[in-house]
Amino acid sequence: MKNPRPKLRPNEDTEHIKELHTANPNHTTQDWINEALALNLQHCGDDDRAISNMLYLALESAEKNNLTCSTENATVLLIARALATMEETIKKIVEKYQDIQRQIRVLTRSAESLKDSLRLIGYRPEYVGAILGEGKSQDERYAEELPFKHATLVQACKQVLRDHSPEWLSKTQVEYLVSMGGFEFSTSNRKNSVRITLDRLASNGFCNIDHDLRENRYRWEPKPSKPQTK
After folding, report:
1. Has residue 208 got a pLDDT over 70?
2. Which residues are 219's β-sheet partners?
3. What's the pLDDT score for residue 106?
4. Domain coordinates in residue numbering, the chain
5. Which among 87, 104, 157, 198 would be 20 to 30 A from 178, CA to CA?
6. Gyration radius (Cα) of the chain, Å
7. Half-sphere exposure at residue 88, Cβ-oriented, CA atoms within 13 angstroms
8. Is the pLDDT of residue 5 over 50?
9. Neighbours of 162 (CB within 10 A)
10. Rounded to whole angstroms, how far apart are CA atoms 222 and 230?
11. Distances (CA, A) of 177 to 163, 199, 201
């Protein structure tokens, strides 16, 4: 099996390799490897391509001279192969990272557009985009942490109202927020389930109702604790 060589940049690398070869016509495979390893130990970032090119010559020499098989030579060639492919590996990692960052930017723009749409149609509260201490809005935190995945609807609605106090929320907005938090409705009429739950919370003194002309709104207003009797 042929030894893997690093890919060459057409102009710079081929010229550099010619210069190296001309300056050191009698270098053996071991000589090229020793120089590359010595340069690598200096930790000079600017010399990465020089190291790669020296290893290219080392592997070329090994193929030309059909270098086999002593334990020492095998070990040296394994090191050479690792170093020769390191740059390509790093390049692939960098390219993958760049691609992920581009995807994040595209998805972020799409998310912002969807958030604006949800706000315009009355699902996402106007103020919910306000930045919290950790740099996320409340619905974004819900989507990441899914706090209502194993909660009852009563627990989820109470937590949403508490988290957004002292703001008023419609049943539509509460439905949106509990859904973002991972709550799974068992009925098809989700808004009605939320309305019944909010009305029950209001009747039990956990929230106030603002009877808006279009849609009732609810705000967290917990019962004052009863004074302890002596």
Report:
1. yes
2. 208
3. 93
4. 1-121, 126-220
5. 104
6. 33
7. 14
8. no
9. 12
10. 24
11. 11, 17, 17
- One-letter identity of residue 101: Q
Q: How many CB atoms are located within 10 Å of the residue 16 CB?
A: 18
User: Which residue would you say has higher pLDDT here, 135 or 209?
Assistant: 209
Sheet containing 169-170, strands listed edge to edge, beginning at the edge strand earlier in sequence = 169-170, 217-220, 207-210
Nearest of 117, 139, 121 to residue 129 by alpha carbon: 139
Paired strand residues for 220 = 207
Length of the chain: 230
CB 161 within 8 A of CB 125: no
Report how far Cα 157 is from the mean position of its chain's Cα atoms.
30
- Residue pair 129/115 in contact (Cβ under 8 Å)? The answer is yes
Phi, psi of 189 (to 5 degrees): -95, 80
Q: Quote the pLDDT of residue 153.
A: 97
**Helices and strands of the chain, counted as H and E runs:** 8, 3
User: 126-220 domain in CATH 3.40.50.620?
Assistant: no
Q: Which two tokens stand for residue 194?
A: 């939320």
Tokens representing 171 are 């049943």
How far is residue 211's CA from residue 156's CA, in Å, rounded to a whole number?
A: 22
What pLDDT score does 4 carry?
44
Angle between helices 190-203 and 153-163 in degrees, nearest 10: 70
pLDDT in tens, 122-156: 888 876 544 455 567 888 899 999 999 999 999 99
Enter the tokens of residue 168. Answer: 């008023």
CA distances to 192, 194, 195, 208 from 149, in Å: 20, 16, 20, 26
| Residue 95, token pair as written in the block | 């390219």
